[in-house]
Amino acid sequence: MAEKLRLGVNIDHVATLRNARGGAVPDPLRAAAIAEAAGADGITAHLREDRRHMRDADIDALMEALNVPLNFEMAATDEMQAIALRHKPHAVCVVPEKREERTTEGGLEVAREENKLAGFIAPLREAGSRVSIFIAADQRQIEAAHRIGAEVIELHTGTYCDAHAEGRFEERDDELKRLTDMAAFADDLGLEVHAGHGLTYGCVPPIAALPQIMELNIGHFLMGEALFLGLGPAIEKMRGIMDAARAGVAD
Ligand code: PXP
Questions:
Q1: What's the start-to-end Cα distance of the chain, in Å?
Q2: What atom in ligand 1 is closest to the CA of residue 46?
Q3: Which is nearest to 66 in space by CA: 39, 86, 38, 43?
């Protein structure tokens, strides 16, 4: 049987809700503690340039309080590199970022920015963080991520999830095939493979079943489900669906 799949719970949108009123609640740190207790193997947080959800103080507090690893998502900017080097989180996931986007829309263009990114991630690795690169399921990008010295890639599952949600099943299955092939390709190169973006109870099983994928990072859907089920039970349900898919048991 494949190794146990890790679940990283992205708590950005607890901060989105907090910031909508400008106060201190709901507290992302409290969400992180509940996620840990519900079986999250790690906490993921994205400090955006515009600080639209997580703020610098949230990252400080998470580094202080977490008992599980922090996966710090950030753009490849000097400002973020300095913050990551100060905190030395367990993992840094480099993502593309555009001010006008609602969420991280695509994967990073590694192939075109190879030299710049190689120089960018080297100090992060030297500081002891595992560097992950968020990319589309594209062989060129995976080869480039490997060449620049990343240890991990995170495959963008957004296209697959959107096609599933919108009933475009042929496109969904084509994208699932790409994810399947590229997870195996990256694993053969020696990269650790993660995946995430847009995952729900409904579309997670085939991704969780891919034996090369070691970690899923899931946020927005879980926070929405938390409104109805409570955060702990929403995460436990995801964990159960992931584990069943991994074990080859139909949910
Ligand atoms: N992985 C990465 C690299 C992301 O940027 C995001 C979104 O911030 C996620 C996973 C989680 O996506 P979602 O919130 O749609 O579950």
A1: 17
A2: 8
A3: 43
Domains, the chain? 6-227+240-246 (3.20.20.70)
Block residue for tokens 């969420």: 103
- Torsional sign, CA 67, 73, 76, 77: negative
Q: Which residue has the tokens 């997580």?
A: 54
Q: Which helix (H) or strand (E) holds 206?
A: helix 204-208
Instruction: Encode pLDDT of 168-212 as tens digits.
Output: 999 999 999 999 999 999 999 999 999 999 999 999 999 999 999
Residue with tokens 């560097």: 131
Report whether residue 93 contacts ligand 1, using a CB cutoff of 6 Å: yes
Beta-carbon neighbour count of residue 64 at 10 Å? 9
* Residues known to be catalytic: 46, 73, 197
Say yes or no: CB of residue 217 within 6 Å of ligand 1: yes
Q: How many CB atoms lie within 10 A of CB 165?
A: 13
The pTM (predicted TM-score) of the whole model is 0.96
Are 107 and 134 spatial neighbours (Cβ–Cβ below 8 Å)?
Answer: yes
Task: Give, as one character, the DSSP assignment of residue 111.
Answer: G
Tell me: the pLDDT tens digits for 7-60?
Answer: 999 999 999 999 999 999 999 999 999 999 999 999 999 999 999 999 999 999
Q: Helices marked H in the chain — which ranges?
A: 12-21, 28-37, 56-65, 78-87, 114-126, 139-147, 158-165, 169-189, 204-208, 220-229, 231-246
Instruction: Concatenate the DSSP letters of all residues of 136-160 into one string.
Output: -S-HHHHHHHHHTT-SEEEEE-HHH
Sign, CA torsion 177/241/228/155: negative
Tell me the β-bridge partners of 195: 155, 216
222: DSSP letter: H
CA of 196 to the centre of ligand 1 (A): 6
